[in-house]
Amino acid sequence: MSTFDPRRREFLTAAGLAGTGLLLAPSTFADYMPGPARALAFVNTHTGEKVDTVYWADGQYDVDALAAIDRVLRDHRTGLVKTIDRRLLDVLHGLRADLGTRAAFQVISCYRSPATNAGLRARGRAVAEKSLHMEGKAADVRLPGVSIDDLHRAAVARKAGGVGYYSGPKFVHVDVGRIRYW
Q: How many Å apart are CA 150 and CA 162, to the nearest integer?
């Protein structure tokens, strides 16, 4: 179940769509909003692979840029690639803007295959049985030059999904599931 963002109501009213029954789903609303290009940069901490690309411009996602992002954010244990939820990419893009940085996200984990997830659980790692990582809807990240405290606060302020704070390994979990914090 999704929550209604009051900014959507403002947009729909301004666009003359309020009361028409036409409501855009939250996952598609941002896709059609005009605005500047969206860029992201990632470094996979396990493989050393990097991508720095504009993934959205002129009102649409760039298929080649998304494929490059999906590849770098794959399950590094199995090599399996999954489509990363575009809403997650948009949240991460927003976080970089909120924090005033163009630094590349250091990615500890993004897509995690069900087999990898089960293997980590079997070894006693604290991973959720139904982790959103398995759906490409979660990322464990840090940003060079930004404290994990500041990254955590910015992610919580976005109210875009789940946010976890991991002080030991020094990363923040960001997902596009239901809003919750730990």
A: 16
